[in-house]
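Subject: Sanity check before I submit

Could someone independently write out the structure tokens for this chain? I want to compare against mine line by line before I put it in a report. The sequence has 159 residues.
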Amino acid sequence: MVEGGLRFSSALHVVATFSPSEVVEIPEIGLETSRLVCFSDKGFCRYYVGIRETQKPCEWVYMSIETLEIIKSFAPKKIRRHVLGKYAREHSLVVPKYMRKVSWRLMVRVMPREAARFIQSRFSELKISEARYEDLLNEADEYYPKYLSYIRQNIYLLH
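---
Independent answer below. Compare away.
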């Protein structure tokens, strides 16, 4: 959740419905793409979720290749929301509902806010035309490795 800034419900949805080999069409821009797109040379992947018609959209999930391997090891699997929340509380971890806010604060330190909004699917805060969508996708792909590097240096090494 820190890597992609996604909501807890979206993270659970991705794990439950994980289908990396599927090809999807993004209707807003007429783009046909693999659901999972990896940039091995840059150390990350993005996974198309495509939840747009709800109050809480989730378009793409950005993640490190290491996180992808963890997801692949047990997905697709339905995980109950309250079990993870309980685990976090019992082990004095940041509860999942706050991870998106943590991610936002870290993202805006290393990338433009518009790219961070796109990565976190904050579409109500963006004005996106078809052409701008592709620009933001490319911009997010450009800045995301910098974000991964930042959290690796400042967050992951704290443990």
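---
OP: Matches mine. For the report I'm noting this point. The helical segments are 8-17, 65-74, 81-90, 99-110, 113-119, 130-154.
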